[in-house]
Amino acid sequence: MQQLARSAASREDRAITTSVLSIVTPLLGHRTYGELLRAAFADSDRPTPCHPEPFNFELHWSDEEEAAHRDGAFERQLRRWSHKMIETPFVRRRNLDFFPLRYELGTSYWARRTLGRILRTQRPDVLHLHSQAISFLSLDVMRRIPTVISADGTSYQMAEQQLDEPYRWTFAANHALEHLAFSRAAAVVAFSAWAARSIVERHRIDARKVRVIPAGVELERFADIARTRAALADGTTRILFVGGEFERKGGPLLVRTFLERFADDPAVELHLVTRAAALPSHPRIVLHERVEAFSPEWTRLYAAADLFAMPTRRDQSPNVFFEAMAAELPIVTTRVGSAAEVVADGRTGFVVARDDEALFADRLTTLVRDAGLRRAFGARARRRVEEDYDVRRTSAELAAVFTAAARMRPE
């Protein structure tokens, strides 16, 4: 980033309106990030305290061209090749079908098609790509347009979370493509220090062009959370889980823990916001399918909850942690990805080792049984998110990166 700053300072100081074209993959938490950016930069064409230098921000989903050509024969074959998993456990545990590579190349192809269509009619000052995988087939465009890549993790971290050491070689092509993308970028935005370390140390990217800027959260959506929670209080303690991929996010462990510790307690409920999942029949395990982020039902579930639990197995930088903290909820989770950076163990929640199921159950039980501790943790969590993860602050930092990158353009 010092290099970007020097480049910016070398130019004549004048008012600049920077045009930013953002391409974001619409997968799960990445879609939430895209929606946050759209809201944060909705009025970016005029100066504000958060964005003193105006710029035009335009966001597109990376699969727009795929949606437009979904019925073509080639498109069907490409989708079959890139999305087909071999479910045999022997293959899955060893990544012998190279599914992550095929999937990322498929998504990169459609991102490139989407980008190509847009660039036929406009030339932005800065290109923003999230996440890095969609840039793999756009490296030539990155030569012409200064590009900012944002990433919540790297392929090295993915391989380490998914595979035993002897089989991590199957990610070699992913590593090589990521390295090319990060090297070509004008700047790299990492969602966490955990991700930034991997980008710098494993991909050997100059630390001066890597910035840690979390995705953030819109605090305004939770402005009345305390009053709403008080109105919904009825003596029941509600545990909330929000995660699209139930297995990966640790849903089965949470359900087992609930049945072992609270199955006979009429004052405790478990609410699961997720896709269809095979669940045991229990009157106080409630599945909420098809709940859209930021919808009234989504807000009500956060307001009705007393604590948030997600013993995730594999993860990068989940947005739900920021949402739970904004909703004044203590969190119980596992030491996976950037969780230990976000959740202060023993102050805003509990973070346990991924495989320590007994300790996870004990920590969850502690918070279920101690309302005072829940309130103390939740209040600290809210203060923490106000200080560090307010999207007005994180978007201002991102805007500064965009502006600096634009000024690297050759005269």
Summary of the model, kept short:
With 411 residues, this protein is an alpha/beta fold. The chain has helices spanning 2-9, 29-40, 64-68, 73-83, 89-92, 99-119, 139-144, 155-162, 172-184, 193-201, 225-232, 251-262, 296-304, 319-326, 339-342, 357-369, 371-388, 391-406; strands at 18-24, 55-61, 126-130, 147-151, 187-190, 210-212, 237-242, 268-273, 285-288, 307-310, 331-334, 349-352.
Kindly list the characteristics that best describe this protein.
411 residues; alpha/beta; Rossmann fold; 2 domains; 6-stranded parallel β-sheet; 45% helix; globular; disordered N terminus
The CATH homologous superfamily of the largest domain: Glycogen Phosphorylase B
Give the overall silhouette.
Answer: globular
Task: Please write the CATH class name of the largest domain.
Answer: Alpha Beta
Report the span from N to C terminus.
Answer: 20 Å
Please give the radius of gyration in angstroms.
22 Å
Overall mean pLDDT stands at: 91
* Count of discrete structural domains: 2
